[in-house]
Each structure stands twice: as structure tokens, then as C-alpha cells.
């Protein structure tokens, strides 16, 4: 069963189930069928790139083969009435936790009923792209009822991304024992690029994505180890930095940093082998898929594809620099990616191992086939819905839950 929680300003949740099995079975990622057709295919993207004159530095790095899976879906609206939702998190038993950017956390039950705001959350700074952002459950949530959430927090000198933890009460009406376990530094008086995905790792540590705050004068901080801006940080559930973090113990570095050189990551997911995949917003023509390595430098703002929104080159940037990791894949034109999930359920065997990514600008669900760490095919789903897809998660039933964030 495929479930779409599509929520916009008027807010709605869509239930989509398979109308039939694949009409042209493609097999799971990595099959002989995939390998045989990879050499000769039709690229799914045929539009002119935003940034002229740039070329991929690696094989299969952009404009992947069109790979239709043939899965037909029946789509049903499940619920209505959410306000700028940002994240969806399936709960044990089938209900959903959904964040609303103005600062509300709600439970949407399996019938589509939207519960009242859960009490006890700290105040958020909801200007611009800020507010209550991601939510993630402890791996032991069924017994400890612990959840984590990210939000933009007002601070002296501006605002920044924070992460809190708490315990959901037995009646599910409030969060108790709330602690702010991480505060990104420095604060900045802006309203963009908070990042804010919280991904629970296989070892129960938290990987938190942090944007570089967008403005030109803040961009260089993505390359600085004394700033959290433009980083992925790895923390324990209590907020402390693990001993094996790559920069722990260095006097010139913040101990929480796991990787650097990011612009604005709003999507992250682990695959079955423990690789962390993230998808980040670029400028015009520079959205990236990256496989995260411990201590890796992903280049922003000196290594990037694309161009500025004004149509001019990104000052000082090249598509490849020594000592920096190139993206596994990039989109040009961009899709504006937000939310990601590596599919592992039984409901869609054709999609095992595929990476799903929500697209805000292109208003679709993107499916990427991954083989040996490379993208070998791309499929666009839910195009007819014409909704800005903000987040995608897999439920315990193998369904995919997707929230949309549509402007009025």
C-alpha cells in the first residue's frame, strides 16, 4: 500500500494504494536488467541546463536513464486541515506525527483524524523558512516514548537551529521532560537555510543537517570548523559529541561536526548497509545527492554546480576541487529537494533499495535507482498531483507517507 500524506495550507492527506503490480517488472536495484540497459537509455531530463558550459565530473552523475517501474496507484484523500507541514513521522501502530511550521506538532490517526496540537514544545521563530521543522522517534520509542525535533530558535543576535528531546505522555497530549540538547552556533539574524533534518543512525546517534543561512557573507562558514553553519553534526541522544567524531579533540573545531561544505540539506536517509545519503538544495542547477563520509568536505561554496539565481557564475566556485568530494548525482535544472527515504518495505518489491526524494519546485516524488553507490535510473511519480512535496517516509506497513507544503 502506498500512502501519501499530502498537506498544504488547506491541508490534505492522500492514501494511495497499488492498483496493480508493475506492468513491466524492473526488478530491484542492482539486477541484470538494470545493468543491461544502463549503457543505452533515454535520459529522463531533457530540458536545457540552468548553467551552460558545465559538464559532469563523474560517470552517471546527472540526467539518469528514465526508469519507469510500471506501478499503478489509486490515490485517496485521507485527511485535510494542516498548516504548512514540514515533516511526517510514522508511529508504531500506524498513526503519524506531523510538524506544522508555525510551531504545532500533531498526530494524524489512521482514519485521517487530525489531533489537537501537542503541548509542551518550546517557542519557535517561524519567520521565513524557520519554525518547527523535523521530528524523529527514538528507535526504542515503543518503550521509552522519546522523540526528537528540530526548530529555529530565537537567540541573542538572531536565531539558529536547535534540537530538543522529550517524552510523549501516555495520553499523547503533551511532551514532557523537554530538554534542548543542541544549539547550532553562531546565531544569525536571518530567515533562510536552517537545514534541520534529524536522522537517527543505526547506532542511535543523531545526524542533524544545518544550512549555511543563505546570505553571501555567511557562505564561507560552511568551510569553517569553528562554525556549525553548512554542516552535518552527529550527537548522542543527550546532545554530547561521540568520541569517534572526526574533529573531536581539535582546538580549532567544534566536536559535533561530522561533515562540512553543505549549502542547505533538507533530506537524509540511511540505506540497508548503513550509508547516509543526503540531498541538498543548490542554487540554479546545483541540487546534489551526496553519500556522506566521516569528515568529508562537500565543497560549498567553492565547489558547486549551477549558477546564482541572478544567472551569473557563483563567485570563486569550480565544479571540482582537490580534497573535496564530488556529488554522486546532481540536478540541472533543479528540483528543490526536501525529504528522503530509502525504501525497504514489502509492499513494493520493485522499489527495494530505491531512494525517494520529495521535490518542491518540480512538484513530484523522485525515485532514484542506486547500484553500487551510483544512480542508474530516475522515475517521477505523483506528477499529476502538482504539489510541493516536503517530506517522504516509509511506514511500518511498507507504505510511503508524503507531506506537501503548498503556498496559498
Q: Write down the overall geometry.
A: globular
The computed structural class is mainly beta
The CATH class, by name, is Mainly Beta
Q: SSE order in H/E notation?
A: EEHEEEEEHEEEEEEEEEEEEEEEEE
CATH topology: Neuraminidase
The CATH superfamily turns out to be TolB, C-terminal domain
Number of domains: 1
Q: What is the helix content?
A: under 10%
Backbone CA Rg: 20 Å
User: For the report, how would you describe the main beta sheet?
Assistant: 4 strands, antiparallel
Distance between the termini: 30 Å
Residue share in β-strands: 35-45%
How many β strands by DSSP? 24
CATH hierarchy: architecture:
6 Propeller
The residue-averaged pLDDT reads 91
Low-confidence stretches: 1-11, 20-38
Count of alpha and pi helical runs? 2
Spatial strand sequence of the major β-sheet:
7-8-9-10
